[in-house]
């Protein structure tokens, strides 16, 4: 049974008041929903709230849910919408989020300190670069890179054409390369 | 192969979003063109470096919180159905109860009123009075019949000729 079939089956069970099916659905997806929201909003607390709200909406919609698209596409669409709502709310309230990604992590002992420092530095630059991406490019990058979706699925979630996604991803890669400091051979 | 076409498709090539034929075209071009190869390296390195941003483990309580919220939602859903139904039943019961109680009270009041009036009449009316009343009724009937006779007396007398002139008289004649 494919992953999507399992999800659809679980949704059917939830519709028939099977609460254990809902628990299983949460177990399968809350990790990825949380990470998408966390990477998009740079705030763990907001990501937690969004994750809770996403699953509450899934539960509410279980009665009317029809499997028109892949379940994960539907789930990420809800997450994306809630993330954009949160950004709008922040903008209107002039809220500056505390970025907990900036909190230093305990270094692992497996690598040499020099390479660890270098890795950390690059990681910092990567985070800054992704954060600096325009929102419509950022969400496309996150869905494609961290959630393994295809251009077609990303297009469906973002409500645009596959060509638009292709263009966005290309622009995002170029932007990231410039921000992180990967120069082309010509400019070196 | 056109460098512009390849550069426009390098990103899709990195993401494995090209057809087999297109992939082959890009691959063969990259082997020949150092500039396009450099562009490919630049974009793929940037894309690969995103791996450094690892997944974060969601807090342990998050799953519990999600389940708890959904349970609350489930009960509130039940309440949403139950409360209006219960309210309608209570209102109906109260209305029926008070209506039937009022009805009973009114019926009792009427019955006691009737009993009282019957008692009063039985006390007031005696035999002589009934006879007197009957006489009055008879007198009234007598006067009414006299009045009717009087009205007949005042009716116009139709002569035989006039009678024949009427349509019924003509027909009968």
Folded structure, characterized:
The complex is a heterodimer of chains A (188) and B (173). Chain A is mainly α. Chain A folds into 2 domains: 103 residues, Rna Polymerase Sigma Factor, Chain: A, CATH 1.10.1740; 82 residues, Winged helix-like DNA-binding domain superfamily/Winged helix DNA-binding domain (Arc Repressor Mutant, subunit A, Orthogonal Bundle). Helices cover 72% and strands 0% of the residues of chain A. Chain A starts with a helix and ends in an 8-residue tail after the last helix. In chain B, helix 2 packs across helix 3. Chain B is mostly helical. The relative contact order of chain B is 0.03. Chain B folds into 3 domains: 50 residues, no CATH class; 60 residues; 48 residues. The interface between A and B is large, with 45 and 37 residues.
Low-confidence stretches of chain B: none
Distance between the termini of chain B: 131 Å
Radius of gyration of chain A: 19 Å
Strand content of chain A: under 5%
Kindly identify the CATH topology of the largest domain in chain A: Rna Polymerase Sigma Factor, Chain: A
What general outline of chain B do the C-alpha atoms trace? elongated
**Total count of domains of chain B:** 3
Q: Cα-atom Rg of chain B, whole angstroms?
A: 56 Å
Strand fraction band of chain B? under 5%
CATH arch. level architecture of the largest domain in chain A: Orthogonal Bundle
The end-to-end distance of chain A, rounded to whole angstroms, is 51 Å
- Counting DSSP H or I runs of 4 or more residues, the number of helices of chain B is 7
The major beta sheet of chain A can be summarized as: none
- CATH superfamily annotation of the largest domain in chain A: RNA polymerase sigma factor, region 2, helix turn helix motif
SSE string of chain A: HHHHHHHH
What is the number of E strands of chain B? 0
| Major beta-sheet overview of chain B | none
Provide the structure class of chain A: mainly alpha
Mean of all residue-level pLDDT scores of chain A: 86
| Count of distinct structural domains of chain A | 2
Total number of helical segments of chain A? 8
């Amino acid at each position: 049974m494919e992953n999507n079939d399992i999800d659809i089956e679980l949704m059917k069970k939830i519709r028939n008041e099977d609460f254990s099916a809902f628990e299983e659905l949460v177990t399968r997806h809350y990790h990825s929903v949380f990470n998408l929201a966390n990477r998009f909003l740079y705030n763990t607390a907001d990501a937690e709230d969004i994750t809770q709200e996403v699953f509450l909406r899934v539960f509410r919609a279980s009665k009317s849910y029809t499997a028109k698209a892949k379940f994960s596409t539907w789930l990420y669409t809800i997450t994306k919408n809630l993330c954009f709502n949160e950004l709008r709310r922040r903008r209107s309230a002039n809220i500056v989020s505390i970025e907990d990604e900036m909190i230093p992590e305990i270094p692992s002992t497996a690598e040499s300190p020099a390479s660890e420092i270098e890795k950390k530095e690059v990681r910092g630059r990567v985070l800054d670069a992704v954060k600096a991406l325009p929102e419509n490019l950022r969400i496309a990058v996150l869905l494609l890179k961290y959630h393994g979706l295809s251009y077609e699925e990303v297009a469906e979630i973002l409500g645009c054409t596959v060509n638009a996604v292709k263009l966005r991803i290309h622009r995002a890669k170029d932007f990231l390369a410039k921000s992180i400091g990967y120069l082309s051979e010509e400019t070196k | 192969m056109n460098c512009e076409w390849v550069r426009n498709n390098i990103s899709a090539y990195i993401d494995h979003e090209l057809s087999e034929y297109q992939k082959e075209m890009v691959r063969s071009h990259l082997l020949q063109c150092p500039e396009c190869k450099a562009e490919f390296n630049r974009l793929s390195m940037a894309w690969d470096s995103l791996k450094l941003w690892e997944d974060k483990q969601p807090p342990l309580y998050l799953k519990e919180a999600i389940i708890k919220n959904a349970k609350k939602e489930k009960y509130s859903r039940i309440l949403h159905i139950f409360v209006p139904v219960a309210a309608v039943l209570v209102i109906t019961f109260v209305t029926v109860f008070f209506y039937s109680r009022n009805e009973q009270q009114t019926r009792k009041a009427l019955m006691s009123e009737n009993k009282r009036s019957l008692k009063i009449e039985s006390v007031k009316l005696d035999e002589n009075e009934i006879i007197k009343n009957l006489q009055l009724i008879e007198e009234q009937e007598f006067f009414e019949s006299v009045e009717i006779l009087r009205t007949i007396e005042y009716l116009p007398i139709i002569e035989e000729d006039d009678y024949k002139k009427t349509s019924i008289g003509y027909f009968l004649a």
